[in-house]
Amino acid sequence: MLLSRLTVASLSAERDQGRSLALLKPQNPSFFFERKEEHEIERERSHLSAAVAQADLFNAGHLVPYEPCPYRFRYRYTIAEGKRTGTCQDWEIEATFFKWRLLYGEHKALTEMVHVFGDEYPRKGMLFAMGTHSQYPDTWLINGVIRYDETGQPNLL
């Protein structure tokens, strides 16, 4: 109930009000994935290696190297402004891929992800936690996918 009051239908209206975070209830969300090109994965690996190599004042330990995900996870959806396609930046979706790939293999992991994030979540209810970047204030990213059951006012009798 609390989250339903915070959801929006228009990202343009949020931007016009100077906001850069929004909870969006997408209409007709469709989850899909795309394999990244090898040069994209190498670029990500290079950026991550450079970040890990930097000295850290607060942590003298070593960071575990991060392996870039070989897939980009996306949604097609509709909002007040019309149809959109967005890349999902939610780290939990990538973590799900890596865990399920270990458990089931790559093909079954991707098949299950399409089922869960593309069929089950939209059927049961979901929200997108949307956000912009300071350098690109008109570009909204899907920062989180939230499973959310919309419930009405319970009967008081």
Can you tag this structure with a few keywords?
157 residues; alpha+beta; 32% strand
What does this protein structure show overall?
By secondary structure, this protein is an alpha+beta fold. It has five helices and seven strands; from the N terminus they run αβαββαββααββ. The protein has helices at residues 2-6, 11-16, 38-53, 91-104, 106-124; strands at residues 7-8, 21-24, 27-35, 71-79, 82-87, 126-133, 136-147. A four-stranded mixed sheet has the order 1-2-6-7. Strands 3-4-5 form a three-stranded antiparallel sheet. α4 (91-104) packs across α5 (106-124). The longest helix is centred in the C-terminal third of the chain and has 19 residues, at 106-124.
Q: What is the chain-wise order of helices and strands?
A: HEHEEHEEHHEE
For the termini, the CA-CA separation is 19 Å
Rg:
18 Å
Shape: globular
Mean pLDDT over all positions? 86
Unreliable segments (pLDDT under 50, ≥5 consecutive)? none
Number of strands: 7
Question: How much of the polypeptide forms β-strand, as a percent range?
Answer: 25-35%
Helix-residue proportion:
25-40%
Count the DSSP helices.
5
Helix-strand category: alpha+beta
The main sheet orders its strands as 1-2-6-7
Instruction: Report the major sheet.
Output: 4 strands, mixed
Question: Would you kindly provide a brief summary of this structure?
Answer:
The protein is α+β, with helices and mostly antiparallel strands.
